[in-house]
Amino acid sequence: MRVNGAGGAISALLCLAALFSIAVAEDPYRFFEWNVTYGDIYPLGVRQKGILINGQFPGPDIHSVTNDNLIINVFNSLDEPFLLSWNGIQQRRNSYEDGVYGTTCPIPPGRNFTYILQVKDQIGSFYYFPSLDFHKAAGGFGGIRILSRPRIPVPFPDPDGDYTVLIGDWYKSNHTTLKAHLDRGKKLPSPDGILINGRGPGGFSLNFEQGKTYRLRISNVGLQNSLNFRIQNHKMKLVEVEGTHTLQTTYSSLDVHVGQSYSVLVTADQPGQDYYVVASSRFTSPILTTTGTVHYANSAGAVSGPPPGGPTIQVDWSLNQARSIRTNLTASGPRPNPQGSYHYGMINLTKTYVLENSAGQVNGKQRYGVNSVSFVPADTPLKLADYFKIGGVFRVGSISDKPTGGGLYLDTSVLGADFRTFVEIVFQNNEDIIQSWHLDGYSFFVVGMDGGQWTTASRDAYNLRDAVSRCTTQVYPKSWTAIHIALDNVGMWNLRTEFWARQYLGQQLYLRVYTSSTSLRDEFPIPRNARLCGKASGQRTRPL
After folding, report:
1. Is there a smaller number of Cβ atoms within 10 Å at the N or the C end of the chain?
2. What residue range is the signal peptide (predicted)?
3. What is the structure's pLDDT at 543?
4. What pLDDT was estimated at residue 26?
């Protein structure tokens, strides 16, 4: 968090001026200046072209407090356009800053862009990542933590340490090679390994002191695989999932599906020595595994013996664990009132969307889609086309709200929804691999998941009392998952698979949450510093 020199100070003042009309004056500002570059990295023992932020891989953590304004000036020193997106940050009333191509123009090589974010009414553990092309396979990701305000009670004592733990599968090939493979219409092979905080087998370590308790913020920032995380001879007490304080259930290992984030408390209550930290792939053949270490300050010896085993292909084990993750109804969230004071199960549904993922060939090339539509980006960010009323970029309703049963075809899929409605989305997965879905701009209640085909009778088994509220959910093979959402955030929001090759080849869409109101209470105007590209080039934002 720094602004260097006179130029940096002037930039900060300009940013503050830009923020004046959209941010609450008493909420603090935090300034970040990031330079995005290529650099050599060796996470699996071979040299690769990585994407670094201020020379770091992974990138620096963002530390913030509920309602903070984050001013992040990103300099693109790559030789290709670049964007960062903020997984789980809701961008209240401001989808322009979401950092995906449907909302934000890319930062050209050699240029910069200042993101103006507010972590409004949020707490918890999240991460950022590069959203364009296949940059995510090269790095550029890092952790985000949002602490509660000082007077808001937290349902556990302050930990003695707080660590970001980024786990994910990884390829030895450069991101450009992977992208070219996909562009030729081919499927990617299985990843080559797993990283923990950018390090391969044996490279990651945590330092513990006897008797102390630590918070680990675990995010799966990988490209496709669900991972099981565990620490030898230690229990993990789950306390938070993507901004929701949970019932404090204790687990010996935890399935973290791609795109998801969890906070656990771990107490150093074992004899003083070193212990394995293990992350291994789920539902794959072969099983990928990596290890790190927990080092006690009074350690009498190194790790010994084989790493502890974990679940491998068992779906029921994972499903039962997922159902056990529930909201702590009496704990406060970002506000002092209990999380259980919002009775989502008593709200009538306005509409149900059923979204079915599929794979197939289009024009002889591998594609993926939703309700038979394989998404192709338009030449202009959809949010800008919507704001400037530019025709010919997208059409609301270009994707059906239920499966059509037809073959895959290409389109820029946008699903329409009305502001202040309460809707149900059912993810139907008829494929034999696990899926992981993320919605920008929102948290949603994961009310049910089970095998087979969803029907209206499936609602009889919904959890309408203490379902966890989060932004990324898994759908097991040949299964369904149902979520409920209060559509209280106007904008253009990306709904995507977190299986990154499938996302790149079309398994995504945009949810346009619309109101005819022009009130600032419903949506902020376009940022003054917004980049304009495509058919929006030459338009004007707002006068400085």
Report:
1. C
2. 1-25
3. 59
4. 78
Of 3.40.50.300, 2.40.110.10, 2.60.40.420, 3.30.565.10, the CATH number of 344-536 is: 2.60.40.420
The pTM of this model reads 0.95
Task: Please tell me the distance from the alpha carbon of residue 294 to that of residue 212, in angstroms, as a whole number.
Answer: 13
Structure tokens at 196: 């923990």
Whether omega for the bond prior to residue 403 falls within 30 degrees of 0, making it cis, is no
Of 180, 166, 179, which is closest to residue 279 (Cα–Cα)?
166
| Residue 216 one-letter amino acid | L
Architecture of domain 161-324: Sandwich (2.60)
CA distances from 149 to 19, 245, 264, 500 (A): 21, 15, 20, 35
What element of type H or E holds 502? Answer: helix 500-504
Would strands 422-429 and 351-362 be described as parallel, antiparallel, or unpaired?
A: parallel
Angle at 37 between CA 36 and CA 39, to 5 degrees: 140
pLDDT digit string (tens) for 196-234? 999 999 999 999 999 999 999 999 999 999 999 999 999
Phi, psi for residue 280 in degrees, rounded to 5: -135, 150
Query: Nearest to residue 438, comparing CAs of 119, 123, 53, 127?
Result: 127
Cβ 139 vs Cβ 59: under 8 Å: yes
Cβ 139 vs Cβ 198: under 8 Å: yes
Residue 95: strand pairing partners:
none
Pairwise pLDDT comparison (542 vs 337), residue with the higher score: 337
Give tens-digit pLDDT for 386-418.
999 999 999 999 999 999 999 999 999 999 999
Q: In whole angstroms, what separates CA 121 from the centre of its chain?
A: 17
Measured distance CA(496)–CA(510) in Å, rounded: 8
- Pairing, β 161-170 against β 213-220: parallel
Q: Enter the tokens of residue 450.
A: 């089970």
| Structural element, H or E, at residue 86 | strand 84-87
CA 482 to chain centroid, in Å, comes to 19
Sign of CA dihedral 188, 193, 199, 204: positive
User: How many helices (H) and strands (E) in the chain?
Assistant: 5, 34
What is the mean predicted confidence (pLDDT) over 321-326?
98
CA distance 308 to 301: 17
Q: Which whole-number Å values give the CA distances from 249 to 245, 252, 320, in the listed order?
A: 11, 10, 13
Tens digits of per-residue pLDDT, 8-65? Answer: 433 443 444 444 344 445 799 999 999 999 999 999 999 999 999 999 999 999 999 9
Q: What topology is assigned to 29-147 in CATH?
A: Immunoglobulin-like (2.60.40)
Q: Residue 441, SS3?
A: coil
Residue 460, exposed/middle/buried by CB under 10 A (0-12, 13-18, 19+)? Answer: exposed
Q: Is the dihedral of CA 156, 265, 482, 442 positive or negative?
A: positive
Tell me the C-alpha distance between 236 and 353, whole Å.
Answer: 36
Is 12 in a helix, a strand, or coil? Answer: helix
